[in-house]
């Protein structure tokens, strides 16, 4: 009861006093601002709507009903100057954002009186719209959900409103007092080198190791594997073990219950998503980059070196590691495994096409599987789901390559985050900020997590309700409760212009996949082109932390220096190492990484 009273009082004291606001014009001169024409609304109807949504939709929650209604009252009162207006926001099309667009936007309108047009488009289109608004200064959307991978871009160009400044200053009157920023698991991902928070995490999902727990538990398969390789069939700790398991299921087992099976799954079509396949931590899993979280310093998982906060080069000749031995090893293994151990159609698939394939029941494991596909692989009737609805599969940490060292990031997390541009008029920013907070408030966030399985709040994944249902999610909950999650991070601040640099990856890697270039040649060209872009950015100038390229030096001088880049190892395939899944799960439950 004391907590409830404290919550209610805090929210009541934080409600802004609604008065007359001076009308302002948008930069386009024709749009009215969000506060131009406040509308008289039946507040009793809004209050009744809040009760309806809290009772019928936003359950369960980590808050009591009284606390939920107190949060909704704050939103209702804070939204008063903007009632009757329509705000425009956009995000990529995934289950979580579909729920926001179809359900949460409607709830927000009924509770606050502010209408929301929440568009759902492809991720590449989101970035294109964002770039257009930044370059033109014309307000297209009032807020964007875009990946935190662009944090380095946002920090340097100065087009994005630092939310930490906004919440303490001009947006203080529309900032939820119970937002609890420290509860967001992705807080470090959206924080710049200046310590400011530039984006608000909305959803996140990791790339983890996925495997058929039921097959790995079969005594006959376990006996055959140990007889051949000399160690137990289990969760692979290193790439050597992953490769052995891929070989075993593809060429030794071959068939289970009359179905042709494969020991690996991936995708390889020449498409922008092929670039994500690599920039999303594939190189760091092999061992590219220095130690450090959320990203390696001075060299990150893209192979870009920074000196202070200034990108200094991607090639080994400039102290980077994009074309170093670890990166070439990573690309080589990717191509080998795709051709030798994956279903034949995998090479012609994109990210979205390949994600659900393990659910068809013919794949034993996948080293790099996005947990954003968890929901589709839990559907009743799938070959990978038991009759009682429990999964036959499990998730675990991805194995690491021979160049990897303890203390280096081991995987990727996609963190879609609310982003506010300075070119959007202030009053429209304020109205959109209210909706953004509504989608992640403690009143609504747990239900959204259960719908999309893309958690953002630590309090949600540790909640009593999630504890009760954790077993049905195949290790997802245990992963997010464990310290292991700290080693899974998005692209960081070393990347000064994500759109310009990201497009280089798929264009060059596809040439190696198609056999037109060797992995070394492809990575050499990629590194050279990245240096060229960094050089152009340096000459063009950036508002903050612009690139300052290092002079070209002999590669050996860099290899001989501590840290990245690393010289080629004499043995890139040490003995395979595995760990029992149950042992790993218990470590997570006890709060240990392994």
Features:
single chain, 594 residues, alpha+beta, seven-stranded mixed β-sheet, 23 helices, 13 strands, globular, disordered N terminus
Question: Can I get a quick summary?
Answer:
By secondary structure, the protein is of the alpha+beta class.
3D structure, described in words:
With 594 residues, the protein is an alpha+beta fold. The strands form four sheets. Strands 1, 2, 3, 4, 10, 11 and 12 form a seven-stranded mixed beta sheet that branches. A two-stranded antiparallel sheet has the order 5-13. It has a two-stranded antiparallel ribbon with strand order 6-7. The protein starts with a helix and ends in a 5-residue tail after the last helix. The N terminus is likely disordered. Helix 2 runs antiparallel to helix 3 and helix 20 runs antiparallel to helix 21. It has 23 helices and 13 strands.
Give the DSSP E fraction (strand runs of 2 or more residues). 5-15%
What share of residues is helical?
40-55%
Category from helices, strands and their pairing: alpha+beta
Radius of gyration, Cα only, in angstroms? 25 Å
Number of strands: 13
Q: Main sheet, how many strands, which sense, barrel?
A: 7 strands, mixed
Spans of at least 5 consecutive residues with low confidence:
1-36
The global form is globular
Query: How many DSSP H or I helices?
Result: 23
Distance between the termini: 39 Å
Please state the average pLDDT score. 92
């Amino acid at each position: 009861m004391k907590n409830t009273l404290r919550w209610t009082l805090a929210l009541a004291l934080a409600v802004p006093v609604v008065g007359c606001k001076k009308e302002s014009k948008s930069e386009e001169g024709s749009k009215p601002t969000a506060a131009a024409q406040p509308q008289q609304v039946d507040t009793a109807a809004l209050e009744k709507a809040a009760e309806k949504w809290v009772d019928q939709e936003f359950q369960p929650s980590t808050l009591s009903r009284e606390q939920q209604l107190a949060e909704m009252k704050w939103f209702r009162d804070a939204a008063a100057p903007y009632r009757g207006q329509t705000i425009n926001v956009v995000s990529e099309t995934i289950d979580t954002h579909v729920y926001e667009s179809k359900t949460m936007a409607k709830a927000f309108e009924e509770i606050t009186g502010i209408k929301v047009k929440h568009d759902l488009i492809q991720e590449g289109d989101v970035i294109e719209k964002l770039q257009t608004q930044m370059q033109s200064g014309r307000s297209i959307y009032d807020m964007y959900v875009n990946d935190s991978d662009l944090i380095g871009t946002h920090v340097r160009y100065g087009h994005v409103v630092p939310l930490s400044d906004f919440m303490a200053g001009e947006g203080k009157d529309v900032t939820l007092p119970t937002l609890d920023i420290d509860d967001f698991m992705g807080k470090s991902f959206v924080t710049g080198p200046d310590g400011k928070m530039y984006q608000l995490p909305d959803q996140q999902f990791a790339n983890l190791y996925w495997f058929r727990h039921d097959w790995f538990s079969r005594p006959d398969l376990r006996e055959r594997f140990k007889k051949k390789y000399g160690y137990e069939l289990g969760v692979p700790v290193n790439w050597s073990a992953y490769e052995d398991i891929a070989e075993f299921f593809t060429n030794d087992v071959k068939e289970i219950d009359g179905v042709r099976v494969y020991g690996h799954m991936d995708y390889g079509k020449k498409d922008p998503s092929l670039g994500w396949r690599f920039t999303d931590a594939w190189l760091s899993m092999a061992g590219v980059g220095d130690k450090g979280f959320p990203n390696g310093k001075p060299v990150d998982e893209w192979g870009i070196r920074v000196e202070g906060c200034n990108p200094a080069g991607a090639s080994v000749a400039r102290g980077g590691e994009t074309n170093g031995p670890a990166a070439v090893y990573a690309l080589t293994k990717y191509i080998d495994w795709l051709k030798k151990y994956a279903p034949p159609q995998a090479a012609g698939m994109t990210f979205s096409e390949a994600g659900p394939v393990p659910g068809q029941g013919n794949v034993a494991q996948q080293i790099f599987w996005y947990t954003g596909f968890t929901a589709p692989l839990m559907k009743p009737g799938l070959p990978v789901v038991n009759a009682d609805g429990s999964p036959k599969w499990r998730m675990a940490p991805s194995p690491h390559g021979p160049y990897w060292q303890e203390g280096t990031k081991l995987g990727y997390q996609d963190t879609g985050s609310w982003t506010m541009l300075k070119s959007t008029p202030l009053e429209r920013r304020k109205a959109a900020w209210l909706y953004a907070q509504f989608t992640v408030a403690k009143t609504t966030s747990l239900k959204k997590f259960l719908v999309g399985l893309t958690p953002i709040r630590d309090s949600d994944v540790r909640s009593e309700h999630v504890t009760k249902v954790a077993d049905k999610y195949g290790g997802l909950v245990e992963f997010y409760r464990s310290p292991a999650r700290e080693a899974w991070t998005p692209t960081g601040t070393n990347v000064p212009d994500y759109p310009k640099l990201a497009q280089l990856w798929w264009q060059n890697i596809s040439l190696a996949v198609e056999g037109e270039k060797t992995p070394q040649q492809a990575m050499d060209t990629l590194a050279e082109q990245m240096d060229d872009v960094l050089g152009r950015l340096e000459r063009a100038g950036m508002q903050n932390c612009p690139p300052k390229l290092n002079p070209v030096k002999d590669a050996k001088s860099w290899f001989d220096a501590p840290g990245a880049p690393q010289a080629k190892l004499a043995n890139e395939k040490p003995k395979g190492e595995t760990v029992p899944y149950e042992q790993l799960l218990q470590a997570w439950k006890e709060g240990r990484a392994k």
